[in-house]
Amino acid sequence: MAYTTVNKSTDYFNTKLYTGNGSTNAITGVGFQPDFTWIKKRDGGTTQHQLFDAVRGVTKRLFSDSTEEESTSATTLTAFGADGFTVGSNTGVNDNSQNHVSWNWKANGAGSANSDGTISTSVSANTTSGFSIMTYTGTGSAGTIGHGLGAKPDAWFVKARSEVRAWYGWHKSMPLGDVWNLNSDGNKSTDTSLFTSSAPTTSVINLGTSVGTNNNGITFVCYAFAEKKGFSKFGSYEGNANADGTFVYTGFKPAFVMIKHLGSSNWTINDTGRDPTNVNNLRLFPNQNVAESSGSNSMDMLSNGFKLRSTDGGNNGSGDSYNYFAFAEEPLVGTNNVPGVAR
Length: 343
Description:
Layout: E1 13-19, E2 25-28, E3 36-41, E4 50-53, E5 60-61, E6 71-72, E7 77-81, E8 84-87, H1 91-94, E9 99-105, E10 112-114, E11 121-126, E12 131-137, E13 143-146, E14 155-160, E15 167-171, E16 178-181, E17 189-190, H2 192-195, E18 204-207, H3 211-214, E19 219-225, E20 232-238, E21 247-249, E22 252-261, E23 267-271, E24 280-283, E25 293-302, E26 305-308, H4 313-316, E27 321-331
Antiparallel strand pairs: 1-9, 2-8, 3-4, 3-9, 5-6, 7-8, 10-11, 11-12, 12-19, 13-18, 14-15, 14-19, 15-16, 16-17, 20-27, 21-26, 22-23, 22-27, 24-25, 25-26
């Protein structure tokens, strides 16, 4: 039985929808003070995904759909609050009368020094939910970075902050040494100069000598995740190209599912905040700046996992392989013996 110590998932991850007002806008109802907030305007036009965290500091943004370096804008996310965040007039995060989505994770505040690795990091880690934010400065020499999770991370993304570089990531369903790019629809590749072929440990992630993850004198951020039973799941599945598609067991009712086809297809995000009833087919693409799509990459969010409901190759191609990231709306059964139920 999928018991969990995280009885209330929304204490650590929550999707918050809001309507922009084109001015200062205090967004509440997240349920906690977020440390990582990912915002995307849902309505028409091309606007980038903007990512903010408490370790890099407010107003400092990165874009999941771009290799751009970090930029600072005083009209974007200007504060993290006890129950949400505040945004300014930037149209990407607060376009007047337009719909926006924010995905929010709780870490552990602004971060503190960590010397577990050979490269010093500033770390904000939540060991209960298995989420860590790290910043560090590259050395150009192979080394390690401390993550503070107290468990082996199952997935991570690294992005150079002070120069133009791709987002490089690893997922436990991939061989060590393989990587993919969050900002690209491309297939995974093998490059041991990025993260080496050594497994992560309960304290560190291994970096190679590549400029993509460890360029000398360049600042980086890393977001790392350790799977927590009943709250998060990072796995893989094989599609069947059938509207009665593959069922993926997570052990909880998903609130958020991000999928990457291990081929040339977009990343996709489905969530129950934007689409609370089955079939769930409102999708956004982390590697693209396009508006929300009501397309064929649909799924059912069930009490114990998700089930693909399309023949589209983006998430259910026949015999194709996919990696996924899932976070819970509620567990299948918590330590309080309260079961989750299907919608």
